[in-house]
Design goal:
The protein has one helix and six strands; from the N terminus they run H-E-E-E-E-E-E. A hairpin with a 2-residue loop joins strand 3 and strand 4. It has a six-stranded antiparallel β-sheet. The relative contact order is 0.34. It is 13% helix and 48% strand.
C-alpha cells in the first residue's frame, strides 16, 4: 500500500469503525536489527503498513503480512491489537506504518 492510498483509505475506514474524524495519525518508521522481533500493543488503534519490505513478517489481530508465506492467500496491510513484527533478514530492515489513534469523542462522518 502506498502512503497516498493509505491517506485516502484511513478516513473512510475510521468512519466505518464509528470514529468519524476524531483520530490522530502518526507516521512510524521503525528500524529493525537483523532477526529482531518487536511487539507493539495497539488496542483500539490501526497500524496501516505503507511501502512494505519483503523481509518482514507482521502478525496481528488484523491478519498477517509475510511475502514469503505460502500458506495464506491474502496479505494484510491493516493491523491492530498485539502486533508482532519480525525482521527475517540478516540485514537491518525498515518498516513504515501510519498509526491511527482514535479519540474518545465520536463524531459523524463528513
Amino acid at each position: 500500500m502506498t502512503t497516498g492510498f493509505a491517506l485516502d483509505y484511513i478516513p473512510r475506514r475510521m468512519c466505518e469503525l464509528g470514529h468519524g474524524s476524531q483520530y490522530i495519525m502518526r507516521y512510524r518508521h521503525m528500524v529493525l536489527k537483523p532477526k529482531e522481533v518487536k511487539t507493539i500493543n495497539a488496542p483500539n488503534q490501526l497500524f496501516v503498513l505503507v511501502d512494505p519490505c519483503g523481509d518482514l513478517r507482521i502478525e496481528s489481530t488484523g491478519g498477517l503480512y509475510d511475502q514469503s508465506e505460502d500458506q495464506v492467500n491474502e496479505l494484510n496491510y491493516e493491523h491492530r491489537g498485539e502486533i508482532v513484527i519480525t525482521n527475517q533478514s540478516i540485514f537491518i530492515s525498515h518498516v513504515r506504518f501510519i498509526q491511527v489513534i482514535p479519540q474518545i469523542c465520536k463524531n459523524t462522518c463528513p
